[in-house]
TrEMBL record:
Keywords: Hydrolase, Signal. One of its GO terms (molecular function) is hydrolase activity. SUPFAM superfamilies: alpha/beta-Hydrolases. The keyword Signal applies. PROSITE patterns: LIPASE_GDXG_SER. Belongs to the 'GDXG' lipolytic enzyme family. Residues 1-25 form the signal peptide. InterPro entries: AB_hydrolase_3, AB_hydrolase_fold, GDXG_lipolytic_enzyme, Lipase_GDXG_put_SER_AS. The active site is at residue 211. Residues 131-299 form the Alpha/beta hydrolase fold-3 domain. This is Esterase. The keyword Transport does not apply.
Amino acid sequence: MAPNTLQKALHLLFVAPFELSASLALAIVQGIAPGSRPDETWTFRQAFSITMSKVLVRQLSVLQRPAGLTLRPGSEGDRFVVMAPSRQDLYRGPMNDPLIAPGQVGATWTPSLLKKPTTQKQKWGSDLLVVLHFHGGAYVVGDGRDHDTGFPAQTLLAHIGCSHVFTPQNRLASDPGGRFPATLQDALSLYVYLLHHLHIPPSQIVLSGDSAGADLALALLRCIGEFGLELGLLWPGAATLWSPWSDVSVALDTAKITWSLNYRSDYLDYSFLHWGAYALIGNGQTSLTDTYISLPYKPFKGEVPIWKTGMTVEWVIEEHCPHDIILLRKTLGFEEAAEGLRKAGEFVRLN
């Protein structure tokens, strides 16, 4: 249950200042000696950044502020585009919700706006490869703008070998009307936009996502597998999943999260996962075990090559790194962690 206004005010006045001050002192003390850091191989900057990020994430979880997304272009200028919903009949299955209707969705092109061909005879060249990348943030924070997803977009450009990255500002569950299936509706609208408005061949589209964004990419793939033939939606050329949050229902199990071997060395606090999970399902209006939210409850067969960090076929590990390193690699001081990116680039080029 979300905290009320009084609880938030009391937390800001009495709890947050003490917790931030104490955590700052602890982060400095722990960071000085390698043996006391969350991971003794980390630098002071890495240890300090992880510790303080976890505290800040915890404050976000308590305050639970609405995202307040805007569809104005902002500093992205003409690289930011707004798409109207697709035809209503395209939103099948769980996307057909009596209370949550498809809405407008914005997205940012990197490095530049991809313009639609002026005539139907014009075709895209073989050098065009678009990565549709969904951002992480537990479905409650983040957006596709430069300040939030610009670094992952540039990272994908550098390592995947794509010509463009398309980063959506899909609706968030922290805003009114943003619970499931709003984000899945937005994801479908974006994919239809690339296929049917820009007429990009599906083989030249890569679905991608980090953390909750990877879960959303998987949900879109399930949608294509279930309804694609009747809706004329073909499989994309490939998919890359970065630290996928594929089983959101785990957020209910506090003990399982906090007893994880990596919990101490990660910046995610269990309260943040609680907030994201409960906001996504509208505090009980949908089940966390819905197969479009927590995909392991009903595996599906897809016809798309998938790169997932941690696949059992080829195990690629970024040693001593926290969750979702593609998003916060620069912020947390892990710029050198690029082996998974290099491998993913090879995978996409081969497929």
